[in-house]
Amino acid sequence: MEISLNVKGMTCGHCKSSVEGALRELDGVTSVEVDLSSGKVNVTYDQAKTSTDDMRQAVEDQGYDVVA
Ligand code: 9UX
């Protein structure tokens, strides 16, 4: 499965690293691509192991909001 999350509040390279790192730590996530200018985060994952709720939580734990 691949989804595109819209993440609000990432403005620098460190923001990008924080979000990427948090998502990569999730069991079942196999690929994370962050586009800083658009806030789009493409995640490839195994839906048997993780969920969009887990991803939302991981991103929010880093201090960023997932929009819709
Ligand atoms: Mo620097 Mo990114 O404070 O939030 S880590 S802009």
TrEMBL record:
PANTHER family: P-TYPE CATION-TRANSPORTING ATPASE (PTHR46594:SF4)
Subcellular location: Cytoplasm
Superkingdom: Bacteria
Protein name: Copper chaperone CopZ
Record-level Gene Ontology MF annotations: copper ion binding
PROSITE patterns, A to Z: HMA_1, HMA_2
A GO CC term attached to the entry: cytoplasm
Keyword check for Cytoplasm: yes
Database matches in InterPro entries: CopZ (IPR049740), Heavy-metal-associated_CS (IPR017969), HMA_Cu_ion-bd (IPR006122), HMA_dom (IPR006121), HMA_dom_sf (IPR036163)
Start and end residues of each HMA domain: 1-67
Record keyword Metal-binding present: yes
Annotated keywords: Chaperone, Copper, Cytoplasm, Metal-binding
NCBIfam families per UniProt: chaper_CopZ_Bs (NF033795), copper ion binding protein (TIGR00003)
